[in-house]
Every structure is written in structure tokens, then in C-alpha cells.
Amino acid sequence: MFTAATTSVSPEPRESPAVVPRVPTPGVPSQAGSPCPSSISYAGWVHFTRARDLLLSGIVAAGVGLALFDLAYGSMQSIPRFAGGLLAIMALGELIGGFVVKDRIHTGRLTEAIVVSRVVVLAKASSQLGAIMLGVWFGALLYLVPRSASLAAAREDIPSAIIGAVCAAALVAAALWLEHCCRTPQDSDHGDRGDQQTPRN
């Protein structure tokens, strides 16, 4: 009587399937039942504009503007009355854009972080431009006002410089408003509680 010899073959180890992370969809509940966080939360890798950065840019630009007017004002033509009008148009556009972005974020119609980050970059660049031009116009006023009593051209250019400074300040305010409208509830919570959190060991 013959007995068939059997050899046990150990199964080869199987590789575990790769886990593909799921991208959370805003407003769609996760498996645990809790709503997924918004995909446009970018706190931690986008830093909002700080007042001291704008102040530094304005001070430097004021010094440069004062030096330029001191060197070249004698050969300059009169300053156009609405030389800063372009900045006012930009300010109006960013003011309206801020309301649009804020509404779309809070209603869930704007869910792409890259779009919001580009708006933040635009707002940051605009606030820097406004701060620089405000400094330049302020430097111009520092040159023109002391000479307005004895120099007719300086006296005539002061209103133009004031209008330019107001337009530049309006651009700074509108850009900061647009940047503020890009904040999400996650960003606000991160900023409010960032100083209170302590690392766990």
C-alpha cells in the first residue's frame, strides 16, 4: 500500500495594497460622520500681511521719494492732478472682489485652495504697492509743503500729492480687506488659539 507523499507549500506573503489618501470634500461627511474640513484651509503655509512690513516699506519709500524730489524737482513738470487715479481704480476693484470672495467661501462655492492662495498673493502685492506709493507721496509732501510759501509750483503740486496719497492709502485698505476676506473659519481658529497651544511630550 503506497502512501502519496505530500509537500506543504507555504503561501507567499502578499503585499499589502497601497493606501490612497482620500481628498476631503467640503460639506461631505466622512465615514465617522463628522464633516470633512474645508480644502481651502491653508493656515500655516500662507502668512498674512503684517503691519510692520507695510510700515517699513512706506518709510523707505518716503525717504526715496524725498530724495528724488530734492534732486529732480527743478526739472520736473507739474504733477497731474489725478496721478494716483489708477491706484483708486485698483482699490475699488479689490474692495468689490473682497465681498465676492468672502461670499463664495462662506457659501462653499469656492473650494480650491490654489485659487484662494492666488487671491492672497494679489492682495499682499497690492498692499505693498500701496504702502510704497503712499511713502513716495508722503515724501513728496515733505518736500513740497515747506516750499509752498515761496515756490508757486510747489504750492500747485500739493493737491496732486494729497490725492495720490489718499488713493494709495485706499489701495492699502482695500488690499487688506481682500486679504481678510480670504480667511476661513479654520484660519481664524488657528490664529486665535495658536498662542494658547503648547506642544505635547
Summary, kept brief:
The chain is 59% helix and 0% strand. It is mostly helical and 201 residues long.
Any overview of this molecule?
This protein has 201 residues and is an all-alpha fold. Helix content is 59%, strand content 0%. The longest helix is centred in the middle third of the chain and has 35 residues. It is elongated, with a radius of gyration of 29 Å. The relative contact order is 0.17.
The low-confidence runs, each spanning 5 or more residues with pLDDT under 50, are 1-9, 15-44, 190-201
What is the straight-line distance between the termini? 70 Å
What is the overall number of helices? 5
Q: Mean of the pLDDT scores?
A: 77
Secondary-structure element sequence? HHHHH
Shape designation: elongated
Q: What Rg do the Cα atoms give? A: 29 Å
Helical/strand content category: mainly alpha
In percent, how much strand structure appears in the residues?
Answer: under 5%
The percentage helix is 55-70%
Number of strands: 0
Sketch the major β-sheet: none
Topology of helices and strands:
Blueprint lengths: L50 H22 L12 H22 L6 H35 L4 H30 L3 H9 L8
List the defining traits of the structure above.
5 helices, 201 residues, elongated, mainly alpha, single chain, disordered N terminus
